[in-house]
Amino acid sequence: MARLLVFIPLLFCFTASLCAQTVVEPPADFLRSVGKIYVVVAVIMVVFLGLAFYLWRMDRRLSDLENQIDDHA
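User: That's the sequence. What structure does it adopt?
Assistant: Structure tokens below.
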């Protein structure tokens, strides 16, 4: 058990030092430099607007069904 308590912190220190040595350009900077960030934003907006429209239509349909149930009861 004592070996495990010593091994786990050493493992974390080793993996942290490996990650700290790599220099990676963030994806947003790369996409901005290439000019593709606007494509990503446009796709996200289309997906968001599509989901919003779908939820709005579903709410209208459910409201109509609720009104039909209330009229028959």
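Residues 37-72 form the longest helix (36 residues).
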